[in-house]
Amino acid sequence: MMKRTLIAAAIAASAALPALAQGAWPSRPITIMGGFPNGAGTDIYARRLAEPLSRALGQPVVVDNRSGAGGTIGAEHVARQPADGYIFYFGTAGTHAINAALYRRLSYNVTQDFTPVVLLGDVPNVMIVNPEKRPNFRTCQDFLTAARARAQAVTFGSTGNGASTHLAGVIFQNAASVEMLHVPYRGQPGAIAALLAGDTDVFFNQTGAAMGPIRQGQVRALAVMTPQRLAALPDVPTAAEACGIEPIDTSTWYALFGPANLPEPIVRRMNTEVNRIISAPDFREWLVQNQAISPPAAPNSPEQFREIMARDVARWAEVVRRSGATVD
């Protein structure tokens, strides 16, 4: 009888351990892993989010980047970590929608190897040129005149083959009936440096990383790749207005993921805290006015974000197919 009682007590105690561990979460620092270089739009956003999130959770939130291969290096690292709530991935539509179609042998499964936690916002692209190196490109029509003079007469840089900045250029050239020469670089620093050096003619950059150079006068914004103008760039026309083409939208998104099978209480807590932070008026103003990022209109659940992601996997698969881009 005593033996059976001890066994039952041991089973009950072992069953309670996960609940106790979850109840104590977090009890040590948390890492938000990014897949792109320091200074990229993901890095800027993650570091801004980390400070208020640290206060909300009562533990330091550290941002770390493992860049390369279109964000797959950082994503794969997080996918292989324990689902204990101490590491998250700052993902994008690139890492968790585009790459599913782009890579022939992707090292992770975008749906099975991650737990969607929260959508962080929609990220538009803006068409920028170097006014010093290309003074004749004052408007999108000027640019199109040069591009239509000869196939591949102009070059467009990107943050990598198949990256959202590459596919934004593909969508634009299809809509505008032009043929440009694509020049991929390894991440944001290389692509913007090439534009500033005059090595490329145009860059369809994400707004988060482009706002600084635009406001400093280093680059000229010719058009935003959205159906409506952006509050942060009210004087910059849409591609439809500036280029005389059908309205296009090349926006992607940022989101937070955990490894697969992240415990539900941790998912809900992180979702609640992040939604509260990005819904605050000061944070929303920073997103809209400083980064030209559109935060979710209302707090979003993991289930709602999962549906958005599923739709975008299908949407970007078609764009990748039309672009012909592949990565081994």
Task: Compile the SSE list and pairings.
Layout: H1 2-23, E1 30-34, H2 41-57, E2 61-65, H3 72-79, E3 87-92, H4 93-102, E4 114-123, E5 125-129, H5 140-149, E6 155-158, H6 164-176, E7 181-184, H7 187-197, E8 202-206, H8 207-215, E9 220-224, H9 239-243, E10 252-259, H10 264-279, H11 281-290, H12 302-323
Parallel strand pairs: 1-2, 1-3, 6-7, 6-8
Antiparallel strand pairs: 3-10, 4-10, 5-8, 5-9
Helix pairs in contact: 2-8, 2-10, 4-12
Written account of the structure:
The structure is a single chain. The chain has two domains: 29-123 and 252-323, Bordetella uptake gene, domain 1 (D-Maltodextrin-Binding Protein, domain 2); 131-243, 3-Layer(aba) Sandwich (D-Maltodextrin-Binding Protein, domain 2). It has a five-stranded mixed β-sheet, sandwiched between helices. A five-stranded mixed β-sheet has the order 7-6-8-5-9. With 328 residues, it is an alpha/beta fold. Helix 2 (41-57) packs across helix 8, helix 2 crosses helix 10 (264-279) and helix 4 (93-102) crosses helix 12 (302-323). 47% of the residues lie in helices and 17% in strands. It has twelve helices and ten strands. The chain has helices at 2-23, 41-57, 72-79, 93-102, 140-149, 164-176, 187-197, 207-215, 239-243, 264-279, 281-290, 302-323, and strands at 30-34, 61-65, 87-92, 114-123, 125-129, 155-158, 181-184, 202-206, 220-224, 252-259. The protein is globular, with a radius of gyration of 22 Å.
